[in-house]
Design a protein that fits this description.
This protein is 32% helix and 19% strand. Strand 7 (312-317) and strand 8 (322-327) form a beta hairpin. The protein is globular and about 85 Å long. The two termini are 37 Å apart.
């Protein structure tokens, strides 16, 4: 998870380098010592370690039995629901405490407490974004609900019960190397983790970049670079859907949709951003399209590939519900999964719910700012950042009606270019209670329960897929999304009056959704939710290709089985290349190259359009396309301000297919007039040195070139799994890149007896010395699944059980 990878690298590397590279301490090579498969960590946990236990906790009301299966998946059987959450917290901490705590340190802007002044900018960024402020607001809302308050209290108590069992010798290894002891958990830390997920999934705005692009390019050029919707769009809610008349007037007074904030470009310090491809696939097929006549639901969220994994697999059985799936270490409930009646899965909504406003203060004290012709009082939040080995750093953050002033002379905006100050309006600042969504989904029985549950998901916006044993399927593009006029929030806005405020939140009755559609399936792959007839502006920056191929495949399939869904979920077919290949063939001029230079082109000609492990053509196409993109746009961008937005890959693709005289196919740095032929020839010639290098190194095959790895959060290779043999890539259903991809694959067949399959690229234990640390990675890379075991209490003596914990008051 990118927010704290760099922090953790610094955190642990220094200690490890000193301890483990010092031959007087450990004479063996560092790599061998730390190898998860062969190194000393294999000795940390005995291969046949018995984790069975009989433990008493005064916090429990009744007994709880936990059965661990052969994959270390816990099956919790509790007589009291909140006891189940206590045990969930205890188990999360037992297997993932270091991961949980570091997530919260990073999210709260407290990394400097551990690694010193190198993390000050990071801590300032997250405090100025208002992460703790947002978590505090959410915590108040969560604790207003008695059920969620009790759930969180129980979970927190469980985490702390485990922490209290720790001794110096039993601390996770990362604590020993870094030299600190875990803090007590709190409900606020769970809220912080949820806000981190909001940051990771709903913080993809490009306001500064788009503002610079709009100020740099002429309007006609700008709109060719950034069209509203791609021609190829196959939206989540099918074209032709009739939407109700909007209840919120989003028309503007005047020409606000083409706001010119300033003729000056805005120079921004480059800050970390979440991966743009944090996304996912999900779909459900109705019984009318399956062999059994029962629905099948599938989900694979695409996130960073890390050890320990973001997910922890488990079952929770109480008198109120029986749910199985994956949970977040750091928060209670099952997040993605199924119960005795239904299944659910999510993909990222990708909406822009974070906008920036230029604030005009009265003077240098920032005690008052101009708003609606009045000088309003500013609130201040004093952020005291503790720095290891150094004096504390104090950062005073001004809060306005829009939110915190994230960028001022002390942070973020380069003073030598602009004196402007910008506040951030982020939906995640508002009070919300997302945990209630999962609490209710875990016990949902039908479509009505699903609807009641997901309407509590405010941010991050998620596309919730649903299927039930009663035969219903549904998709809701859920979230509390600002009602915006066209292009509102794409650029920096004025903060001096209410004109530019959000007009409200799109009513939940007007959120795009589907219920039992005639086509027999629902699906989402992070593409734009609707066609252009939807009355509210939903932004422009969405991927399209996975949605196209998923909908094409599902349309053509009948008599579907779970095995068909496994093949589809791991498909490496490249629909982007399918569309690009004819255009490349049309414009490429073979006669301008020597025969030996055409060897890669000839491989490309024979390609089956699948990014398989051993495909050389997939690598050739990737290298060629990157060079083509650069050749087309680099001349126009040569003198552009930074940072600046760049067009989507699909924008270039559709221009090739549609426009033989595309304005950007001319290189404006030369006196001649270039065409597509010239651009593609130049790109291929530029590609030859790298392709030769890859060929000579034996790494031209796609899996070797892409080099997928599942890295430990410290980025230390010895704790990681490297060079995984797996296909896929961007724009492909199997969206596996180098460090990013399907973080959990799940298929649920809602037959009379539920049949479910799943796998994630990691293991249940966070200890690199445990055999359960990376146990699932080979299975995941091979495109194979485990059959998920929704255990019954009558199976307590099953041979699959390797350990049992008995917990009682």
């Amino acid at each position: 998870m990118r927010i704290f990878l760099s922090i953790l690298t610094v955190l642990v590397t220094a200690a490890l380098c000193f301890i483990l590279d010092n031959k007087k301490v450990l004479p063996a090579p560092l790599g061998k010592l730390l190898s998860p498969q062969h190194g000393v960590w294999q000795n940390a946990d005995p291969v046949n370690e018995n984790i069975s236990a009989d433990i008493s906790f005064p916090q429990l009301k009744s007994k709880v039995d936990v059965y661990f299966d052969e994959r270390l998946v816990p099956h919790i059987f509790a007589e009291d629901e909140n006891d189940a959450y206590f045990v969930q917290g205890f188990l999360h901490a037992k297997f993932r405490l270091w991961q949980m705590e570091l997530q919260c340190f990073a999210a709260a802007g407290r990394a400097s407490e551990i690694i010193g002044e190198k993390a000050i900018d990071h801590d300032k960024e997250f405090r100025r974004l208002g992460m703790v402020y947002a978590a505090e607001n959410t915590l108040v809302e969560m604790e207003k609900n008695p059920a969620i308050k009790a759930e969180c209290d129980a979970y927190t108590a469980g985490v702390n019960a485990y922490i209290e069992t720790l001794t110096q010798s039993s601390l996770p290894i990362e604590y020993k190397l870094i030299g600190y002891y875990p803090e007590k958990w709190s409900n606020l830390k769970s809220a912080l983790f949820l806000k981190y997920m909001s940051y990771d999934l709903a913080a993809h705005e490009n306001d500064f970049e788009m503002t610079n692009a709009k100020s740099f390019f002429k309007p006609d050029i700008f709109h060719q670079l950034f069209p509203g919707q791609p021609d190829s769009l196959d939206p989540i809610i099918p074209r032709g859907t009739i939407y109700p008349t909007p209840s919120i007037d989003v028309k503007t007074n005047g020409n606000l949709d083409s706001l010119e904030l300033s003729s000056d470009s805005i120079a921004m310090d480059q800050l970390s951003k979440p991966d743009k491809e944090n996304g996912s696939n999900n779909w459900a097929v109705a019984g009318s399209k399956t062999k059994s006549g029962k629905p099948i639901l599938c989900n694979d969220p695409h996130l960073g590939l890390n050890l320990p994994s973001l997910w922890f697999e488990m079952q929770i059985h109480t008198p109120q519900f029986n749910a199985y799936g994956v949970s977040f270490p750091g928060a209670p409930s099952i997040v993605i999964g199924y119960n005795d009646s239904c299944a659910w899965g999510v993909t990222n909504g990708g909406r822009d719910v974070r906008d920036y406003y230029e604030i005009q203060f009265r003077d240098e004290t920032h005690k008052e700012y101009l708003f609606n012709h009045n000088w309003e009082k500013t609130n201040f939040r004093i952020e005291r950042i503790k720095v290891a080995g150094k004096p504390d750093v104090t950062d005073t953050v001004a809060y306005t009606i829009f939110g915190p002033v994230m960028y001022d002379r002390n942070f973020g905006v380069k003073r030598n270019t602009t004196n402007k100050l910008f506040a951030v309006r982020w939906k995640a600042h508002d009070p919300s209670n997302e945990l209630l969504t999962f609490n209710l989904l875990n016990r949902a029985k039908n479509y009505e329960d699903y609807l009641a549950a997901v309407m509590h998901m405010e941010t991050p916006g998620q596309n919730f897929a649903f299927a039930s044993k009663s035969g219903d399927i549904a998709m809701r593009t859920q979230g509390f999304f600002p009602a915006k006029w066209k292009e509102q929030g794409d650029y920096l806005m004025k903060g001096t009056d209410s004109t530019y405020l959000w007009r409200g939140i799109i009513p939940q009755t007007e959120v795009p959704m589907q219920f039992n559609p005639e086509r027999g399936f629902i699906s989402s792959a992070n593409q734009h939710p609707t066609d252009s007839t939807y009355p509210y502006y939903l932004g422009r920056d969405y991927p399209t290709m996975r949605g196209i191929i998923i909908n094409r495949m599902l349309t053509g399939m009948n008599n579907i089985t779970p095995e068909n869904m496994m093949q589809m979920q791991t498909s490496n077919y490249n629909v982007f290349a399918e569309m690009a290949k004819p255009a490349l063939l049309k414009y490429f001029q073979k006669e301008k190259f020597k025969e030996k230079e055409l060897k890669y082109w000839n491989i490309f000609l024979q390609w089956n359009l699948s990014n398989d492990i051993d495909s050389k053509a997939a690598t050739i196409t990737d290298v060629l396309w990157k060079n083509l993109y650069e050749s087309v746009y680099q001349d126009e961008y040569a003198r552009a301000p930074k940072p600046i937005a760049y067009p989507l890959q699909t924008t270039l693709l559709e221009a090739m297919l549609r426009d033989s005289a595309y304005v950007f196919s001319d290189d404006i740095s030369t006196p001649s007039l270039e065409s597509w032929d010239d651009m593609i020839n130049v790109a291929y010639r530029k590609s030859l040195p790298l392709l030769d290098s890859l060929h000579n190194a034996g790494t031209l095959e796609w899996a070797k070139y892409k080099d997928t790895r599942v890295s430990h959060l410290t980025k230390l290779d010895a704790f990681s799994r490297l060079h995984l043999p797996i296909g896929g890539g961007s724009n492909i259903i199997n969206a596996t890149r180098d460090t990013h991809g399907p973080s959990w694959r799940m298929i649920v067949h809602l037959n009379n007896e539920t049949e479910a399959y799943g796998v994630y690229p990691g293991g249940q234990s966070g200890n690199p010395g445990s055999k359960f640390y990376d146990q699932f990675i080979d299975q995941w890379a091979a495109g194979k699944y485990y059959k998920l075991w929704m255990m019954n209490a009558s199976e307590a003596s099953s041979e699959r059980i390797i350990a049992k914990m008995q917990l009682h008051p």
